[in-house]
Amino acid sequence: MVVTKFNEVLPKATAKRLPQYYRIFKQFVADKVDRTNSQAIAAKLGVDSATVRRDFSLFGELGRRGYGYDTTALRDFFGNLLGDSAETNIALVGVGNLGRALINYRFHDRNKMRITQAYDVAGNPLVGTKTDDGIPIYNISDIQKNLQDSNIETAIISVQSDRAQEVADTLIASGIKGILNFTPRRLQVPENITVQSIDLTSELQTLLFFMQDKKETEQK
After folding, report:
1. Dist. CA 117–CA 137, nearest whole Å
2. How distant is the alpha carbon of residue 130 from its chain centre?
3. Which residues are annotated as a binding site for NAD(+)?
4. In sequence order, which residues have a C-beta less than 8 Å from that of residue 207 and are 6 or more positions away?
């Protein structure tokens, strides 16, 4: 658990911005920008500069008055905070349309994360094959046997909602500690298990709400 310099739990809103900060500083370094300020960071992030300064203040002195922020130092800081110095192998359960898209997403090109195993039911013709990148697609019945003999602690669920809890229970019993859940089902897990849920329908509905709200505001 990440805590602030005040020995408090890091706010969820700040935690969700950490990967964005990391990506921004990696881009600064790639562009050979040696230092920057909260205004430039905020512009890239789409928030106000006060939010950036407030987030950074939770970790202590990340910058210097009159100088700003050293981009290489902050890239390394957020990389270490996110554990990007080590390889993270991921298991994917559900190789339907979304699952195939996730397999083909180049996590490894951006970070040290990669899907190394995939699973689906025997009826899926992809079971027993490998992707073009060499990722094996196993029968879902092999999850416990395979995961217990691996170093994988992270999994993605992209199955039908009515099977999500059953899959989560199997993953947890196999040693998985973190789950990225792409179903609208709210998973019931022990306290020591971390779940991050992404409901694409809800996200799209939220987008449409803000679009409509902005349109009505402009018409007034």
Report:
1. 6
2. 24
3. 94-99
4. none
How many angstroms separate the CA atoms of 211 and 208, rounded?
5
Q: Which segment of 4-8, 9-13, 58-62, 182-186 scores lowest on mean pLDDT?
A: 4-8
Residue 69 C-beta-side C-alpha neighbours within 13 Å: 27
Structure token pair of residue 71: 């981009």
pLDDT per residue as tens digits for the range 35-61: 999 999 999 998 999 999 999 989 888
pTM of the predicted structure, to 2 decimals: 0.73
How far apart (Å, rounded) are the C-alpha atoms in residues 74 and 78? 6
H-run or E-run covering 92: strand 88-93
Annotated binding-site ranges: 94-99
What 3-state class would DSSP assign to 155? strand
Q: Are 138 and 124 in contact (CB under 8 A)?
A: no
Residue 85 exposure: Cα atoms within 13 Å on the Cβ side: 7
Closest C-alpha among 95, 81, 80 to residue 128:
95
DSSP structure string for 102-128: HHHS-HHHHSSEEEEEEEE-TTSTTTT
Q: For each of the domains in the chain, give its residue range(s) and CATH number, in order of start.
A: 12-80 (1.10.10.10), 88-202 (3.40.50.720)
3-state secondary structure of 91: strand
